Amino acid sequence: MGRKIKLIQLISFIIIVVQFVLIAFFVVAYFTDLFHLRTALTPENILIGASALVFTDCIFVWVFSALISTLRRNTDLHAAEVIGSDVQEAYNFAQIGLAVTDDKDIVLWTNELFKSRHMDIIDSNILEWLPDLRVLKDANNLNGEQICKVVVNSRNYAVKYLMQAGLWIFKDDTDYEEIYAYSKEQAPVVGVLMIDNYDDVVRGDDDFNDIATRVKNVMFNYCKEYGVLLRRIKDDHYSMLCNYQSYCKMQADHFSIIDKAREECRGLDIPLTISIGIARDFPDVIKLNDLANEALDIAMSRGGDQVVVSVYGSDMEFYGGKSEAQEKRNRVKVRVLADSLISLIKNASDVLVMGHQMMDMDAFGACLGVKAICDRLNKSCRLVVDIKNTETKTRGALTSSFSKEELDQLIVTSKEAEDMIKTNTLTVVVDVHTSNMVMAPNLLDKSSKIVVIDHHRRAEDYIESPVFNHIDPASSSASEIISEFIKFSSINPRIIIPPIYATIMLSGIYLDTSYFKSKSTGLRTFEACTILKEFGADNAMADDFLKDDYEEYTLITDIIANLEHPAYGVVCACVPDNLTVDNATIAKAANRCLSFKGVHVSFVIGRINSHDVRISGRSDGSINVQLLLEKMGGGGHFTSAAGNFEKTTIKSVKETLYNVLDQYLGEATADAKSRKNLTEEA
Fold first, then answer.
1. Which of 2, 72, 509, 681 has the fewest CB atoms within 10 Å around its CB?
2. Which phi and psi angles does 307 have, rounded to 5°?
């Protein structure tokens, strides 16, 4: 058939070309009066000739169309003769069912597959039989194409609907679905488990060793129950291996292993808890192991007692985190960390230090603490500060504490810092660990050596591959961490903090602890204040740096005058959308709201620039505000958290907050109660 059609096409092409040549020759001969054509031919003769040509072409078209139709019909008949009655056998082999319906969706006919599988639906409404098929009718009404998955008599079918023919095509893909489900259930899941505070608790004491044994028994019994292979790597580290089916069972159980381990340690001053990093959805177990270790690092930096799941190609998932980060007073570890930082500074050509955007007093004080270390080591150190990108009180401390000449030697702008970067420059980031929140994000891309020092719970979007990374959520502030580094480093003679530096660092501790009223305040906080006082910190001046002026006090009063109560014990206030405020004002308004009787958690939402909105949350400890704001994309501590949102409105952030409260307020309250019970029993 193919050759004959090609031959017909060739003949047609030749005829058309010949006609065009003859017509062109006639036109030229007529207008040049060749052979006296113009005299010999009248218009009537030309019209008759043209009509004859058109008629001849119509005859050719009709003949060729009939010939092609005959060829196709003969070919189809031949195919039907070849297949014959075996068409039904072909449908049965492919497990395809056909059903024809009328315009009222009544089944008129079905093929043998329906009868053999006891699906007698003739004269029935197919949409009443399978309501899920309505989506196919809707899709066709919108000129769309869609396939619907249905289950009939424990078998899976993919259904397609041809509207013009009223034909429903059912393809049995049960075997494929079973293979897919089996492959998904057996996909590897790799985890790394760590016993928190193991070295601090187990010190050769038999009683503590007995508690550790009980915790380990909980671990092994839980893993045995859920089909998880658990193997010890070292005393406090274990590897986990299971399939996706076992993982789903643990997920449905909300990883109760961390709760069971915590129950075994009730009454201890430093309870043993469990942190787990899990990785899934990738075929390479080596890659999964790397992802699991990264997830464990995040769990530890967020305070431990939780499970962090790394889903390849997706956002991380967090479970647990009901306990506050335990305060650790391991001065040996502090000395080791301080000496490591000092070694990096010694080997660097110069140092650049920066905090977060809208830099507050804690970030500024921590930067000055690093500057004091560099001055002791005779290393060039500059603070990366964009004056317009700092909080009002920080700007006031800068201008009132340092002369213009001192500021020129102390700070550089982010653009100047990018020009100053060298191969061996050390970039130190304090009070922040997410790359998009630092003072100069572009500086991170150009820096080959980065140090991160922070006290916030680690978020998923953290700075990649730092040469030194210390995130301690048990610390109240970044200034506290730097103070400990300076005090307990082994360098001799010791590092000296200038009095004005110490005063600003003390002011940073005041800010982050709300004058020691925050739940993050611990014994280490007061020791850090003692260290700073030894270096001449002026607590009166530190307090002056944080005092509100009259305009800010009035603004805070106006903000909290518009309180709303989305839930019992929860209040929310919004800054007028036409006003721009700094982070400190929003945080102070949230703290002020928390001072009201009957308020357990407060949220304040305000615009910090023309594009971005910030939310600050505070809690009295009865509700886990950090859990709530993490659901919105923020983070922080158990009783103090915040979040920034780019290119949005205050109304949109408020709606998101209310949705989160509707879904997770109960969970956040339960987390807080669990932590409170543990504290009381301890």
1. 2
2. -115, 130
Report pLDDT digits (tens) over 495-545.
999 999 999 999 999 988 888 877 778 888 999 999 999 999 999 999 999
Which residue is listed with tokens 């007698």?
120
3-state helix/strand/coil string of 176-229: HHHHHHHHHHCCEEEEEEEEECHHHHCCCCHHHHHHHHHHHHHHHHHHHHCCCE
Q: Going by C-beta distance under 8 Å and a sequence separation of 6 or more, which residues neighbour residue 176? A: none
The two tokens of residue 88 are: 């039904």
Classify strands 167-172 and 107-110 as parallel, antiparallel or unpaired. unpaired
Rounded Cα distance between 393 and 315, Å, is 36
- Per-residue b or e along 102-127, where b marks 16 or more CB atoms closer than 10 Å to that residue's CB: eeebbbeebbebbeeeebebeeeebb
Specify whether the CB–CB gap between 249 and 223 falls below 8 A: no
d(CA 2, CA 71): 10
Q: Are 166 and 127 in contact (CB under 8 A)?
A: no
Q: What is the pTM of this model?
A: 0.57
Q: What is the mean pLDDT of residues 75-86?
A: 49
The one-character DSSP state at 33 is: T
Mean of the per-residue pLDDT values of the chain = 84
Tens-digit pLDDT profile for residues 451-460:
999 988 777 6
Cα 353 → chain centroid: 28
